[in-house]
Prior knowledge:
Elements: E1 8-11, E2 30-39, E3 42-47, E4 53-57, E5 61-62, E6 73-74, E7 79-82, H1 85-91, E8 99-104, E9 112-118, E10 121-130, E11 133-135, E12 141-142, H2 145-154, E13 165-166, E14 173-174, H3 175-182, E15 191-199, E16 204-210, E17 213-220, H4 223-236, E18 247-252, E19 256-261, H5 268-275, H6 282-301, E20 314-316, E21 322-324, H7 349-354, H8 359-374, H9 386-394, H10 407-416, H11 427-440, H12 446-455
Parallel strand pairs: 6-14, 7-8, 8-13
Antiparallel strand pairs: 1-2, 1-5, 2-3, 3-4, 8-9, 9-10, 10-11, 11-12, 15-16, 16-17, 17-19, 18-19, 20-21
This protein binds adenosine-5'-diphosphate (ADP).
Amino acid sequence: MNWAPGTQCVAKCDNRKAKPGELLYHKGDILTIVDTSTRKGFYAARHNTTEEEGLINSSNVREREALRVDPGLSLMPWFHGKISGPTAVGKLQPPQDGLFLVRESIRHPGDYVLCVSFSKEVFHYRVIYQDNKLTIDNQQYFYNLIDMIEFYSKTKGSLVTTLVTPRKKQGAKSAEQELSKTGWLLDITKLILGENIGEGEFGAVYRGEYMGQMVAVKTIKCDVTAQAFMQETAVMTKLQHKNLVRLLGVILHKGLHIVTELMTKGNLVNFLRTRGRSVVGPAQLLRFSLDVCEGMEYLESKKLVHRDLAARNVLISDDSVAKVSDFGLAKMDSKETDKAKLPVKWTAPEALKKEKFSTKSDVWSYGVLLWEIFAYGRQPYPKMSLKEVKEKVEAGYRMEAPEDCPPGAYAIMKLCWEQEPRKRPGFSKLREKLEQELSKTSPSSAAGSQEAAKTGLRS
Length: 459
Ligand code: ADP
């Protein structure tokens, strides 16, 4: 178990009579590890609610539980969609000061209304959308509804009261409560945000530090996207493997911040492009291939399909371990796809044509990823248009081996690109084959150790 500083864990029992230097806690409390090296059998930890710090017996804590993947899990449980004013009033009964909900106006579609109970009355505030921002009073402006509710829960502003209790929509479960209960909610005040290290499709990625641990923070400001990412996050809480980028937790503040371990060497495409053949040798390429394969074997065992496996979604850690990231499209089943968004050059023919996603379509993508690895980060199907790729691949065309690619590695790619999904090997079979390939390259050879010495790579 990796109890790195910043890891949150759950107390398995009470420690009501703490000795000097020890931390006081109850069963079920969430504690954050601060230091694991102070005393054998003990960790220094901070209590998430009392904020006290002290030593804890390492056998008294357990890992956090995964979040249940539930479509009702919501960052905006107080959002009721399109309901009328009278219906909203009905939902805010019996009266309770600070009880609130947000609805979409029926008369003015697209406009929101904040409804608050106070002094046995319900007040309706129209939320105006102006210059990409939301406002009630033309004084305070917000990026999104989450941001607005967060503000008025702390500050009354021009409302009659601060917001106290959300009236949840039927079936909605507060993501905040679930995250907090299970120990996945992190505290924004403990985060030191650093420089921007990447641009994702939905938001920027920053370097940061959380209680002494280097982290990456993906920020998602749009509330609708943030809501969609809640599902991704719930999936990530279930997964732990050395070759998957590890989720440390999330922060809810003006949207969603997803905090993961920091992968200092960036994505695999950039890693290979910027270093090239003279620095990274075939043995290292095979090790990256094996790393990704093991991560995928684990996903396969969890019956998860990645759907967007590509070298751009593989990140490299400080000690040069490749890990699969970006479970944005990962789904338990194969429904709901937006065809226009599919990464054509990486997607298996049956997935492109019939939306049949499976572990075997991930295997196809893995073959393309292998090609990218041995081509040192080149774009696959060089100089071919997407339309051309679709047609030719369907007709049986396959990419040639990248320059100087070991024949064994190319043979594996070809297996991944069998037209028939069931003829493609699974990830455990692929792992065996890669291990055989790797054993052929002698790590003790002069070339191997020179390579390791030059790059600081694993040998
Ligand atoms: P998206 O999937 O929305 O495109 P990504 O999650 O792939 O966004 O992030 C974009 C870029 O940010 C990545 O290519 C990578 O360079 C950087 N990045 C993302 N996560 C991390 C991380 N954990 N450590 C280091 N860099 C990261």
